[in-house]
Amino acid sequence: GNSVTQMEGPVTLSEEAFLTINCTYTATGYPSLFWYVQYPGEGLQLLLKATKADDKGSNKGFEATYRKETTSFHLEKGSVQVSDSAVYFCALSDLDSNYQLIWGAGTKLIIKP
Amino acid sequence: EAGVAQSPRYKIIEKRQSVAFWCNPISGHATLYWYQQILGQGPKLLIQFQNNGVVDDSQLPKDRFSAERLKGVDSTLKIQPAKLEDSAVYLCASSLDRFGSYNEQFFGPGTRLTVL
Questions:
Q1: Taking CA A106 as the corner, what is the angle to CA A95 and CA A34, rounded to the nearest 5 degrees?
Q2: Residue B105 and residue A46: Cβ atoms within 8 Å?
Q3: Which of A26, A56, B92, B113 is the most interior residue, by most CB within 10 Å?
Q4: Do A43 and B98 touch (CB under 8 A)?
């Protein structure tokens, strides 16, 4: 079945550091890929998405490129801020999952000033 | 545009008690989802509604959990009786529809349940 694997956290960085959170997926079809963010005490928010190979999703300085050849959708940001501290979830949906979201376990990001 | 509303935000109960959560989705959204999120894990889908019909409840523990969306708008999720392992955040989400570009899900703030 479909699955999503994320790098384990927590990831701790200093402000202005470069961020990469790895995400790889297993899917038989052509999934759409998502990054959601969960700030402390809040619900999940869609951060960015990509619906086909080589698409790049971007929002709030974050980017992720849909790489079908490596089945990856890594999240990157060039210069993180303390306010980026949150839990980040990678997810996919496709026909095989009846378009339901298949979630990774989440990666907690801690940014120190 | 108002987001997904949930209440209560927090609930503490003792095991074997009952509890109910309420969700009001974004206006016009046909699809509604209830998730259980245990600390340190990704959300687990409990039940998915399309209007007032159930699309998928395969992971809902039906011996103790029930959910309804009678008029195809707001929804309630009930646990009766609660167990210690039900301690989690219960998330409600909605989307315009189930398929394609319409299935982007918008989440409410969640209800944090603690079972003692």
A1: 40
A2: yes
A3: B92
A4: no
Closest C-alpha among B43, B88, B86 to residue B64: B86
Chain B residue with the nearest C-alpha to that of A41: B109
CA distance A22 to chain B (A): 16
**For residue A4, which residues of chain B lie inside 8 Å, CB to CB?**
42
Q: Judge whether residue B100 has pLDDT over 70.
A: no
Name the pLDDT band for B57 (thresholds 50, 70, 90): very high
Would you call A43 and B107 a contact, using CB atoms and an 8 Å cutoff? yes
B93 at interface of A, judged by CB pairs closer than 8 A: yes
**pLDDT at position A8, please?**
87
Do you find a cis peptide bond into B8, omega within 30 degrees of 0? yes
Count interface pairs A-B at CB distance under 8 A.
Answer: 45
By CB neighbour count within 10 A (0-12 exposed, 13-18 middle, 19+ buried), where does A41 fall? exposed
- Mean pLDDT on A45-60: 94
B26 interfacial to chain A (CB closer than 8 Å): no
Mean pLDDT over each residue of chain A, to the nearest integer? 93
Q: Is the CB of A8 inside 8 Å of chain B's CB atoms?
A: no
The pLDDT of residue B102 is above 80? no
